[in-house]
Hints:
By secondary structure, the chain is an alpha+beta fold.
Amino acid sequence: VFAQTPLQNAEEFYRQGKFSAALGLYEYDLKSHPNDPYVYYNIGNCYFKMGSMGLAAANYYRAFKLAPRNTDIRNNLALALSAGGESLVPAGVPPILHKAFFSLSYSELKGLTMVLWWVFCLLACIWVLKRRGGRITATVAVVLLLSAGWFYMRHKAETEPLAVVAAPVAEIRSGPGTNFPASASVAQGHLLTVQDEKDSWYEVIVKSQGIKGWVDKNAIEQI
């Protein structure tokens, strides 16, 4: 006997190995919970079980942005990316530094920076009016600058127009159309940066290879 809620039914379908049915219910649940990282995580799990590593990686990435400290989300994202020859941690970056950089979500870091700003303003006013608390004001100012720099770098990462190859293979062409020759092909799971758009084509850069060209929109999933 199935549970009554769509989410419970989805979990039951998933346990029974009916991943396509579970996926439909999780995607239905996403309409009412668009910012729930665990819904994206469950959608990613369904795609992973169905062998669609590109779509799995896209949904794990969405979950990772919302809950970067969650170990299961991080590990599954890394696993899905590795299936396409990608790595979650960029080359040359120590894993511990990457974890520290994503130790707070974007919204948490934004909130922290705003709180530090108002604390600094309050302390600065006290120092100007009463000439007291200069040392702690300077300390908060330094922490604020560090937080603002961190937030700036995260903002750049957050707003980067990322996509992932969802089709088994995506052809990278020299122009926006099948009449242009293919210069390369990339397997599903590869990360792309979207540069431009024309009709049914995106101009992209394959992040791990530095290849630039045009790809059919239907072959990729924007994150």
